Amino acid sequence: MNKRLFWKLCLIIATGVVALFYAINMLAQHTEEDMSMLAPEDRQQLNDWGQQAEKLYYAGNKAALHDWLETLKKQENTWVSIVEYEFTKIAGDPLNDIYTERFFLGRSVDWKIHLYLNYNPVMDIPFEQGQKSFLIKLPKRMRPGSYWQTTRFILKIILPMLLLSLLSWVLYHHIMDPLKKLERATREFSKGHFAVRVNQSIGKRNDEISQLANTFDQMAHRIGALINSQRQLIADLSHELRPPLTRLDIAVQSLQDQHNCLQNLERVERESKQIRKLVDDTLTLAWLENERPDIQLETVELVDLIDVIIDDAQFEFPQNKMRIKLPDSALIQQSNHRAIGQATENILRNALRYTPNNKTVEIILSEEPKEFILSIGDEGPGVPEDMLESIFQPFFRVDKARMAHTNSFGLGLALAKRQLESVAARIKASNKPNGGLLMQIYLPKNDKFKT
């Protein structure tokens, strides 16, 4: 597993948390700086008081200036004063005018007021004329940052909690939404809706959850196909069993009437063998499809195996001819002689069964770089083009023409295909140009079969 989801969550959480706290820190600093400045109307008020003090001072009315200062002091419950300052050079070069122009005995109204001070600073409003200033201890009502502690708590505690909760909610839905869809699909599948799938509904994800969804879809497809196959197999088996059982009932009833006893006994025996073969083939097919058994891997000499199968077929079908073209040797690694042999025997018997007497079945084994191709062609009636794939389905019959001289139940080719698939081989059916059916078996030379 590639742990894409793990790295995605690491990237989102690590980047998100670092970016979050960096942004909150910048926001807190900016907010603190803004809240440290005097309000514009308070700055204007302080400057107005400085101008009023300068005006009264230069008017020469000290009594009026004193009364105004006392009134302001009581009104704002603060400390006020007017001071004059002068620089005296003691040694060295003369002082530049810039020092006297920019000298402050208190804080300028344009400066920040530290929010963590436990006292109100003295504000300095210099006169426009001369080295004099109006000093006033900042009134309590003008102190900035009244709600700084609350704001700071919101910025550094409440806001991170809200944003992290939002991030958690997003991550939760990113993980849980597809899992909920998987849960719903599992519930629907358990109710018998075998066509349900998940992978397409979760979008273009490429992580552990999408792998889980893909695994579920593969499982659903496999189990659904197996269940549907078993249902069809049972239905077909039931359908195929009815005729021989009916004939058995008739034969038994005739025996009970004591008429044609020998003929009826032969009929009972024949129908019993057919039923047994039908049941055995059906159970074998179901076992191959459902259990996917482990096949013992071995080296197979195809030529020797085919020679044995041909000898048996010639003994069983002496009325047919066989044209055989085999190489001197054909070795296959990591395969199984039983699976290949039974499948080949089924296909060859099928070809001989449908080939008219004195007609020829052609058997050719050719070699390709990665595989051997075993071709078995008959001179029978062939198969309609649109049914060439269907003939490998259990209990499938083409028509009466191809079934006229056989008691087959349509399981031979289905069994052959499953047996070949068990050793990574494949089979293809096609019609010959001059009539008849051609079966081609593709047998890999060295590929280890995969279940």
Automatic annotation (TrEMBL):
It is an enzyme of class 2 (transferase). It comes from the Bacteria. Residues 236-447 form the Histidine kinase domain. This is histidine kinase. Residues 173-228 form the HAMP domain. CDD domains: HAMP, HisKA. GO terms for molecular function: kinase activity. It is a multi-pass membrane protein. The chain crosses the membrane at residues 6-28, 153-172.
